[in-house]
């Protein structure tokens, strides 16, 4: 596949398909909602293409298995990253923590031949040129906030505006002391792997949360931004030679350009966020070969309805 092998990573089969036609992406399918689950069954086959699943696909391992059965039957290869919903745990779960649940979800993906952030990064060799597809699991550290707000006051600052993310009581970062500490560990781990893979091959970086603060658009609930990423990744698109960065989480479908790099927010969303009559296939975003229009240096958002 590529030069990113590591003795701790388990290779995933079907990682290289000769000349697939397109690389698509979608996130935030929220299959816990029955309407979204039913719509998924109408998705046609894209048997020569790859699909990136950008997190918040569902919140249970059972639903993830069912979803992967559907996607793997319709696409040549699937790449998955977790969102915050996948990490939710409560007293009914068999998991000691969100970390343990994440590890179980990785095994679910591996059983289906799906690439995860813990595996060898698959090499795309189709239209748009050779790219390494890099699934990331980075979380957030509350740093997407104004400089006048201290880190320890970030959640209180958001609550003052009437906003409290469910993550605060449903993501258990143990054995890490906090979600911010887990985030730092994931950033360090991912940065190390990216440096190991720095061979000049352009990257498609995939993370559920936006990698840049300026791309967080939460106009109706602006202080929700603290649950949307980390400033530690602001320059990763340049540092690691990305040509495309894929994210979700915001339910604000759009395309942006920063420093000549294309950023794609690829959410589907809750049933209220999309039009059922169009079908899920309408919302699959083409990542490679990508749009035919000229590449911008700094532009957007170009909204994707």
Please describe what this structure looks like.
The chain has one domain: Purple Acid Phosphatase, chain A, domain 2. It has helices at 34-40, 61-74, 98-111, 154-159, 167-170, 179-196, 236-239, and strands spanning 23-26, 46-53, 75-80, 123-124, 131-135, 203-206, 242-247, 254-258, 261-265, 285-288, 298-303. A 7-stranded mixed β-sheet has the order 4-5-6-7-9-8-11. Strands 3-2-1-10 form a 4-stranded mixed β-sheet. 22% of the residues lie in helices and 18% in strands. The radius of gyration is 18 Å and the shape is globular. The chain is an alpha/beta fold. The chain contains 7 helices and 11 strands. The two termini are 35 Å apart.
Q: Report the portion of residues in β strands.
A: 15-25%
Mean pLDDT rating: 93
Overall geometry: globular
Distance from N terminus to C terminus (CA atoms, Å) equals 35 Å
- The run of helices and strands is EHEHEHEEHHHEHEEEEE
Counting DSSP H or I runs of 4 or more residues, the number of helices is 7
CATH structural architecture = 4-Layer Sandwich
- The name of the CATH topology is Purple Acid Phosphatase, chain A, domain 2
Strand order of the largest sheet: 4-5-6-7-9-8-11
**The CATH homology group name:** Metallo-dependent phosphatases
The figure for the number of domains is 1
Helical/strand content category: alpha/beta
Main sheet overview: 7 strands, mixed
Q: What's the count of strands?
A: 11
Query: What share of residues is helical?
Result: 10-25%
Computed CA radius of gyration, to the nearest angstrom: 18 Å
Which regions are unreliable across 5 or more consecutive residues at pLDDT < 50?
1-7, 10-20
Question: Which CATH class?
Answer: Alpha Beta
């Amino acid at each position: 596949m590529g030069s990113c092998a590591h003795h701790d990573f388990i290779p995933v089969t079907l990682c290289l398909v000769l000349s697939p036609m397109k690389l698509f992406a979608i996130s935030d399918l929220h299959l816990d909602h029955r309407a979204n689950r039913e719509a998924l069954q109408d998705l046609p086959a894209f048997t020569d293409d790859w699909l990136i699943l950008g997190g918040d696909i569902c919140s249970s391992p059972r639903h993830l298995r069912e979803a992967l059965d559907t996607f793997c039957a319709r696409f040549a290869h699937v790449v998955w990253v977790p969102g915050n919903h996948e990490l939710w745990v409560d007293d009914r779960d068999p998991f000691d923590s969100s970390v343990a649940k994440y590890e179980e979800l990785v095994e679910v993906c591996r059983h289906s031949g799906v690439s995860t952030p813990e595996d060898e990064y698959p090499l795309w060799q189709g239209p748009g040129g050779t790219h390494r597809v890099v699934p990331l699991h980075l979380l957030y550290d509350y740093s997407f906030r104004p400089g006048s707000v201290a880190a320890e006051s970030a959640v209180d600052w958001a609550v003052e505006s009437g906003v409290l993310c469910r993550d605060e009581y449903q993501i258990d970062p143990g054995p890490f002391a906090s979600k911010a500490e887990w985030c730092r560990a994931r950033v360090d781990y991912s940065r190390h792997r990216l440096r190991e893979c720095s061979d000049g091959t352009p990257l498609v970086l995939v993370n559920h949360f936006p990698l840049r603060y300026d791309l967080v658009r939460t106009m109706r609930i602006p202080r929700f931004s603290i649950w949307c990423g980390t400033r530690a990744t602001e320059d990763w698109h340049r540092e690691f030679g990305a040509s495309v960065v894929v994210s979700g989480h915001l339910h604000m479908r759009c395309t942006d350009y920063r420093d000549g790099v294309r950023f794609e927010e690829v959410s589907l969303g809750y049933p209220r966020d999309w039009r059922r009559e169009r079908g899920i296939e309408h919302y699959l975003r083409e990542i490679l070969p990508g749009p035919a229009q000229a590449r911008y240096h700094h532009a957007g958002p170009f909204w994707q309805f």
